[in-house]
């Protein structure tokens, strides 16, 4: 496949260009808006997300019967896989904009910057999902990271938010520096930055005995530091509880869903197009290492979530655990494994964003993020409590909710490849996770609020948005989309 | 100077950077450690580009230039966050910025 030149590529690059245009437009329009309370810029960025969504679909249709095109002299690649992630990321961005509109934490004076940064971070994530060159991988990762540091610290005059940003950048900068160090050795060993060429060169070099397999493994481990920090896998997960607790709730929701999805896109593309040829696998067995990381990630996430009293922090640990479940699929070199990851990411998007939306609502209502604030919610706001219960049960993986089907596909793929111990660890972890999710449900349904019980009033818009998350959480499992998703994944796995 | 010399220097720089991040008790020193890490990577790319690829292929040096730009962007954001930390906590010592735990 011949990469297109820079000018020819622009035709396939319209969604990203539109994101840039709208990010700039948001800043300019914000300058003209006199009333600080008006939500003009938020609606403008929603329109932007809508336009980009249409552009993504049109650009993908332009592919025609080609499976993929390589753009900008091989820097990024447009295929079904990247289009899938772009759609997923746009959904998360749109949801975050809607949450931010309803959240009362954010400073009204800084709206322009906030929404412009949200669009910029989507741009970085688009590139993360499609880069096929070491340089592009690093630039896109840094674009996303730098923007998320700023967004995490966006609550000025809130010490927790500043602290979150500080911990995030200290950890993130070291992790991405370590990753760049690993990338430099991959570049040195193969003399090229292109993932496809790295794969062929490594295969030749390992067969000829010209590079040590240990050197390749060490380079991979260094790169894993950067990717692992994005998807919050052990041992690079330490930042995530503090950042999730301190950041504004819409940003926490965004980081836990979009940032993780983009991280998985990068992870899958990097490992599957660069390091999955039979020769490389024979001498550098990175799958076993990932299996151990996956088992540790879910165990640490779930055990640490048990004593948490702050719901945001609890959901942070739960999202670490979910990263572990997702990694299980990445261990297998099959399209079923990746298909299961993609399916779980879709499910996770709806159930986790839904849960965070309820956290936004309760924080507005009660001014509290603690489990105690959820006491007696079932009598005050039965619909909200019911929705939260559905999200939490789905996160646990209880049938008939979508989370169950997602986990089932992951476990089935793992068992098929003979990783029995990994499936067993995953299963034990699901049981453990029931304890802390059920604690919130218990507070909502079985405990009474200390204060006078007043009926909470939520607007119709709130319920409409809530049902956008509830309905997929119930129904996705019954849709037969898994087959399509595992077909999508074929576009990243090179033919062997 | 052979490739090994450059690689040894960059490995030392990288280790010093990690060491600074882990042991320093001042946010600015941590930033300096991070810069060391990024510069060791740039040195690596430039050295590999000189010794391992044909002379007309300068992609490694291009990556190093991008690395410098990204390091500058990171330093800008880091300093802004240090400023925010100083306003809220009156200190830039990481062990005094410790309200989120558990």
Biggest chain pair interface: A-B, 44 and 44 residues
Based on CA inertia axes, which overall geometry of chain A fits? Answer: globular
Along the chain, the helix and strand elements of chain B come as HHH
- Distance between the ends of chain B: 50 Å
- Mean pLDDT of chain A comes to 90
CATH class of chain B: Mainly Alpha
How many helices of chain A? The count is 21
What is the string of SSEs of chain A from the N terminus onward?
HHHEEHHHHHHHHHHHHHHHHHH
- SS summary, helix count of chain B: 3
Mean pLDDT of chain B: 92
- Helix-strand makeup class of chain B: mainly alpha
Number of DSSP-assigned strands of chain A: 2
| Biggest sheet features of chain A | 2 strands, antiparallel
C-alpha-based Rg of chain A, rounded: 22 Å
Unreliable residue runs of chain B: none
In angstroms, what is the radius of gyration of chain B?
Answer: 17 Å
Q: Kindly report the oligomeric state of this protein.
A: heterodimer
Number of structural units classed as domains of chain B: 1
CATH fold topology of chain B? Helix Hairpins
Helicity of chain B, in percent?
over 70%
């Amino acid at each position: 496949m011949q990469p297109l030149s820079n000018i020819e590529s622009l035709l396939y690059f319209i969604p990203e260009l539109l994101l840039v245009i709208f990010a700039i437009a948001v800043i300019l329009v914000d300058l003209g808006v006199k009333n600080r309370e008006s939500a003009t810029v938020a609606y403008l960025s929603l329109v932007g997300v809508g336009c980009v969504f249409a552009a993504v679909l049109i650009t993908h249709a332009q592919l025609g019967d080609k499976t993929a095109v390589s753009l900008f002299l091989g820097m990024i690649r447009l295929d079904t896989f990247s289009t899938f992630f772009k759609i997923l990321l746009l959904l998360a961005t749109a949801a975050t904009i809607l949450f931010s509109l309803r959240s009362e934490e954010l400073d009204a004076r800084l709206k322009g910057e906030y929404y412009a940064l949200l669009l910029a971070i989507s741009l970085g994530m688009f590139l993360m999902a499609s880069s096929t060159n070491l340089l592009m991988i690093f630039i896109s990762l840094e674009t996303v990271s730098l923007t998320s540091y700023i967004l995490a610290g966006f609550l000025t005059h809130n010490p927790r938010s500043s602290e979150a940003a500080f911990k995030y950048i200290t950890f993130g900068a070291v992790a991405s520096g370590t990753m760049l160090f690993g990338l430099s050795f991959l570049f040195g060993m193969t003399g090229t930055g292109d993932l496809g060429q790295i794969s062929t060169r490594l295969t030749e070099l390992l067969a000829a005995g010209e590079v040590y397999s240990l050197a390749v493994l060490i380079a991979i481990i260094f790169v894993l530091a950067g990717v692992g920090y994005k998807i919050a896998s052990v041992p690079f997960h330490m930042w995530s509880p503090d950042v999730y607790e301190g950041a504004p709730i819409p940003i926490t929701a965004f980081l836990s869903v979009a940032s993780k999805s983009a991280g998985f896109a990068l992870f899958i593309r990097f490992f599957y197009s660069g390091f999955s040829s039979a020769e490389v696998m024979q001498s550098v067995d990175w799958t076993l290492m990932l299996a151990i990381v996956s088992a540790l990630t879910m165990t640490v996430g779930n055990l640490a979530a048990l004593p948490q009293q702050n719901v945001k922090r609890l959901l942070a640990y739960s999202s670490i655990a979910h990263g572990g479940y997702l990694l299980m699929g990445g261990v297998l070199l099959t399209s079923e494994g990746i298909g299961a990851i993609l399916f779980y990411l879709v499910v996770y998007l709806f159930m986790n964003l839904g849960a965070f939306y309820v956290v936004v609502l309760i924080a507005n209502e009660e001014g509290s993020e603690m489990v105690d604030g959820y006491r007696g919610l079932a009598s005050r706001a039965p619909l909200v409590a019911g929705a939260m219960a559905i999200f939490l049960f789905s996160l646990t993986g209880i049938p008939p909710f979508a989370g169950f089907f997602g986990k089932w596909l992951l476990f089935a793929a793992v068992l098929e490849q003979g990783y029995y111990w990994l499936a067993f660890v995953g299963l034990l972890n699901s049981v453990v996770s029931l304890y802390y999710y059920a604690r919130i449900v218990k507070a909502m349904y079985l405990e009474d609020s200390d204060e006078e019980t007043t009926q909470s009033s939520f607007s119709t818009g709130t319920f409409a948005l809530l049902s956008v998350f509830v309905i997929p959480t119930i129904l996705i499992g019954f849709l037969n989309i898994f087959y399509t998703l595992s077909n999508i994944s074929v576009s990243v796995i090179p033919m062997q | 100077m052979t490739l090994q010399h450059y690689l040894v220097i960059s490995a030392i720089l990288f280790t010093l950077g990690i060491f600074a991040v882990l042991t320093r008790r001042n946010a600015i020193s941590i930033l300096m450690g991070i810069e060391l890490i990024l510069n060791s990577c740039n040195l690596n790319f430039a050295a590999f580009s000189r010794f391992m690829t044909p002379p007309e292929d300068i992609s490694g040096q291009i990556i190093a230039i991008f690395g410098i730009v990204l390091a500058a962007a990171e330093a800008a954001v880091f300093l802004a966050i240090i400023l925010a930390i100083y306003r809220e906590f009156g200190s830039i010592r990481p062990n005094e910025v410790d309200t989120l735990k558990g």
